[in-house]
């Protein structure tokens, strides 16, 4: 299955946000490596990128997960950030827990990560028709059993 590396350098925030949003809507898996020190994220550590959301306030956030299920992120929009109102928590379904899942501002994501990879999986069907003496048709279908819900 194809993998695309999306480098952030030179990309607009809208392009980054829309790419993450589109990949998430297609249920494609995304991951990136924290490349620069940013609010206690672990440099050189891989993180899952699991979504993007524009708050009713207009702020664009990226949903990230530490696969070790620990939250070290101390920056804006962390689980206990006072910016979270009950309405905004409900908007994104925020669960304040040390589960490794956190939200961060798009500009912070662009600062901390040099890029991310997108695994473009899906259900594939292929049909091969053989024009030969037998006239056989071969068909197969691959279905991904993977669901990205966290």
Structure description:
By secondary structure, the chain is α+β, with helices and mostly antiparallel strands. β7 and β8 form a beta hairpin. The protein is 18% helix and 31% strand. The strands form two sheets. The chain has a six-stranded antiparallel sheet. Strands 7-8 form a two-stranded antiparallel ribbon. The protein has a single domain (3-122), classed as Cysteine proteinases (Cathepsin B, Chain A, Alpha-Beta Complex).
Number of helices: 3
The percent of residues in helical segments reads 10-25%
The whole-angstrom Rg is 19 Å
Going by helix content, strand content and strand pairing, the class is alpha+beta
* Largest sheet: number of strands, sense, barrel closure: 6 strands, antiparallel
**How many strand segments?**
8
CATH fold-level topology: Cathepsin B, Chain A
Oligomer: single chain
CATH homologous group name? Cysteine proteinases
Reading side by side through the largest sheet, how are the strands ordered? 1-6-2-3-4-5
Strand content: 25-35%
CATH class: Alpha Beta
Averaged pLDDT = 84
What attributes does this structure have?
alpha+beta; Cathepsin B, Chain A; 3 helices; 8 strands
């Amino acid at each position: 299955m194809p993998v695309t590396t999306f480098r952030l350098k030179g990309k607009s925030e809208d392009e980054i946000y829309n790419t993450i949003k589109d990949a998430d809507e297609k249920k494609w898996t995304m991951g990136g490596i924290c490349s620069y020190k940013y609010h206690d994220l672990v440099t050189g550590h891989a993180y899952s990128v699991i979504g993007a959301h524009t708050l009713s306030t207009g702020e664009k956030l990226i949903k990230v997960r530490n696969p070790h299920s620990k939250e070290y992120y101390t920056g804006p929009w962390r689980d206990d950030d006072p910016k979270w109102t009950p309405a905004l928590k409900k908007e994104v379904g925020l669960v304040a827990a040390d589960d490794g899942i956190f939200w961060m501002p798009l500009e912070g994501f662009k600062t901390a990560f040099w890029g991310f990879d997108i695994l473009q999986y899906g259900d594939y069907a292929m049909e091969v028709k053989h024009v030969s003496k037998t006239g056989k048709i071969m068909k197969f279908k691959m279905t991904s059993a993977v669901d990205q819900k966290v």
